[in-house]
Amino acid sequence: MNNLYDLDLPRTPANHVALSPISFVERSAEVFGARTAVIHGARRYTWAQVRERCARLVAALKALGVGRGSTVSVMLPNTPEMVEAHYGVPATGAVLNTLNTRLDAALLAWQMNHCEVQVLITDSEFAPLMDKALALLKSTHGREPVVIDVCDSEFAGPHERLGAHEYEALLAAHAPVERLQGPADEWDAIAVSYTSGTTGDPKGVVTHHRGAYLNAVGNAVTWTMPHFPVYLWTLPMFHCNGWCFPWTIASLGGTHVCLRKVDARLILEAMSEYRVDHYCAAPIVHSLLIAAPAELRQGIGHPVRGLVAGAAPPASMIEGMAQLGFDITHVYGLTEVYGPSSVAVKDPDWAAQSLAEQTRLNGRQGVRYLLQEGMTVMDPETLAEVPADGSTMGEIMFRGNVVMKGYLKNPAATAASFAGGWFHTGDLAVMEADRYVKIKDRSKDIIISGGENISSIEVEDALYRHPAVVACAVVAKPDPKWGETPMAYVELKAPDAATAEELIAHCRGLLAGYKVPRDIRFEPIPKTSTGKIQKFQLRERARSGSACD
């Protein structure tokens, strides 16, 4: 029934507009048009220029038949064209599909077919790989997208062409549209991003304009970012749409410093030359900076702030970055919640604690983002919240506007992930007395030895405290007596920097006896392009005969 406040107070275009991060680009072009928006080698673009380039891209894509419900896939490193794709593609009404640059041709073809790609924008560095993927896409699925080639000025290799269109020529051939427009309905899809597919086919995570808008703002609020940040792209933009930071930087009139390759020297040189003050990365990238020669950091005399996520950061990494003087904030999330959706908010009182205690506090996954409506730890069967006692284990769950629409063409997986009105992450955690969440493990990574649960993260944290360890991963090894025992794969800072016996003795000083790894292998650890360790490969190794001899 209508009440007093429902009468003659209609929703109109004057008082209600669908939320979309595309509006941030228009505002920055209008208000900060002369400020530098993008730096990439010798190239510089202002916000006014970026807005015009995106408006030309919109016109070009529309001329190719792209519109609401179309999919535009992009195979691009962190370049200006990748930034522009995040603005221009959604402004056509289409859905952006950012492809992982480290996938093989078969999986790329599968993903492009699954999301029914209409246009592909691809960098010439990946031409040989994409040529194979496109051939498979045609022969296996009968699909032939329009291909737009990007010939980046900073790529030193051959500029092989796959399609009929070259990006810069295509922009030049089209007059810009009058305005970058968001959708009529903020629930419209803005992107589809694929999970790693460690079990079965990957799942296509569909996100919407409203969530992208809110998480972009949430990043700025959570990190207390000022106007005009200088942001370095160490995080691949293909990963959760760069955790929504393409849109965050646009909202603040900041500067995107593009980087084709993640390399400690290139990162530190860019920080020094451009006075970069913000960046995001997985723990392994932060560890690269810790291990870099001290002389590479000598030109960095200004404050630098980093976000760490993508994997639970070892205490040694947080401690190492603090010793370098970099201000690191720990966030947590998944592709299904647009990247970071919780944060270990730093309480000012923590500054009085020892460095070791600050490291422990900052190493937690923390509390929900301001614009995420719910995050807690629950029993996955009963959906009862676990007590905030720091020991009762449950599953992290989210709910709110910064949660995906669901999985593309997979209603069963969507329904299962939203059971009980919460998004089920699959991450096992405890809630401490201050209601900060601390992950103990992925449900599939818990090691059960003699009936006792062992957190692989806890064992890894102990190993990382040894000065010779640069990377490690702990998985379950089948054991005839105990069922499972911890097995560690380790990469050292230098060959022969430590023996297995030394590392086991080191762990005995930090862990209960049953948690100490029985077997340590010095082998390369498989990682994704975003720095996540691929434990499923290590679990397969551990189950193989060679791992159980």
UniProtKB/TrEMBL annotation:
One of its GO terms (molecular function) is ligase activity. Gene3D superfamilies: 3.30.300.30, N-terminal domain of ligase-like. Signal peptide: none annotated. CDD domains: ttLC_FACS_AEE21_like. Coiled coil: none annotated. It comes from the Bacteria. One of its GO terms (biological process) is fatty acid metabolic process. Keywords: Fatty acid metabolism, Ligase, Lipid metabolism. Residues 26-408 form the AMP-dependent synthetase/ligase domain. Residues 458-532 form the AMP-binding enzyme C-terminal domain. PROSITE patterns: AMP_BINDING. The keyword Ligase applies. PANTHER family: ACYL-ACTIVATING ENZYME, BUTANOATE--COA LIGASE AAE1-RELATED. Belongs to the ATP-dependent AMP-binding enzyme family. This is Fatty-acyl-CoA synthase.
